[in-house]
Amino acid sequence: MVAHTLASESFDWQFDTCGDPKLVAMLEAAKTFADAIMNDEDPNWLCLLGTSGAGKTLLAKRLLAFWRARGGYRVIQGRAGEFQSLGESRLILWPKFIERQLDGQWGEMQGIRETPFMVVDDLGREKGPPAFNAARADEVAESRLGKWTVFTSNKTLQQIADTDKRVASRMLRNGSATIDINVPDFNLRKRKPSA
Ligand SMILES: Nc1ncnc2c1ncn2[C@@H]1O[C@H](COP(=O)(O)OP(=O)(O)O)[C@@H](O)[C@H]1O
Ligand SMILES: [Mg+2]
Questions:
Q1: Which ligand places an atom closest to the C-alpha of 91?
Q2: What is the DSSP string of 10-64?
Q3: Best mutation site among 186, 189, 190, 192 for ligand 1, i.e. most ligand atoms within 8 A of its Cβ?
Q4: Is the pLDDT score of 195 beyond 50?
Q5: What residue's CA is closest to ligand 1, atom 17?
Q6: Least confident of 19-23, 31-35, 96-100
Q7: How many CB atoms lie within 10 A of CB 16?
Q8: The Cα angle at residue 155 between residues 152 and 158, in degrees rounded to 5
């Protein structure tokens, strides 16, 4: 078991692994990501991919909560001395983002570029012209390089690569952690009598 920071260990992840090694690995990856934030390491990505109902969105939202409660603070020098400042964070639902982009709301890109912590939820679930979607995904991926970013997708890395090689290859570079998980839906897992 990896040693984690006190902050990530004491945070309430509200994530039930049901003892499944794949879910344990996903939670571990989230804690490692949280540790990297706490330790002020170079920002990178966490990509949670795989079957629907695995808990990817839940864990991404918990990481956002971790940022807001613990990891997102930096010491700033002000005129009255040092103070703690919380870096901005946001979650975008990718299918909704694509709808807004199709609607011509281009101004949103600047915020995406500048936000220190961001969750991009449900990549690959968007409707819309595939070439348009791929171009937007490329642009967002490019703008998030070297910034704390959590991507979730119900697609596998291979499926992402089939529609967008550039995004998939970035998911494997620059110290990004990519978890490709295949487990039964949470509600189905819950219904199984425990052994
Ligand atoms: N490990 C878990 N512990 C607690 N609740 C979970 C867990 N995994 C999934 N859930 C619940 O099951 C539902 C589906 O999870 P979600 O995070 O949306 O899955 P995914 O994004 O992988 O499709 C949500 O209501 C979520 O809160
Ligand atoms: Mg999801």
A1: 2
A2: HS------TT-HHHHHHHHHHHHHHHHHHTTPPP-EEEEEESTTSSHHHHHHHHH
A3: 186
A4: no
A5: 55
A6: 19-23
A7: 14
A8: 120
- Specify whether the CB–CB gap between 98 and 136 falls below 8 A: yes
Ligand 2 is an ion; its neighbours by CB within 5 Å are 57
The helix or strand, by DSSP H or E, that contains position 135, with its residue range, turns out to be helix 130-143
Q: In what order do the strands lie in the sheet with 117-121?
A: 89-93, 117-121, 148-153, 45-50, 177-181
Residue 141 · residue 113 · CB < 8 Å: no
Three-class DSSP category at 97? helix
Determine if ligand 1 sits within 6 Å of the CB of residue 53.
yes
Ligand nearest the Cα of residue 94 is 2
Q: Is the CB of 182 under 6 A from ligand 1?
A: no
What's the confidence (pLDDT) of residue 192? 59
User: How many whole angstroms separate alpha carbon 51 and alpha carbon 110?
Assistant: 31
* Residue type present at position 30: A
Cα-to-centroid distance, 54 and ligand 1 (Å)? 6
pLDDT in the model for residue 157: 92
Give the predicted TM-score (pTM) of the model: 0.94
Ligand 1 touching residue 153 (CB < 6 A): no
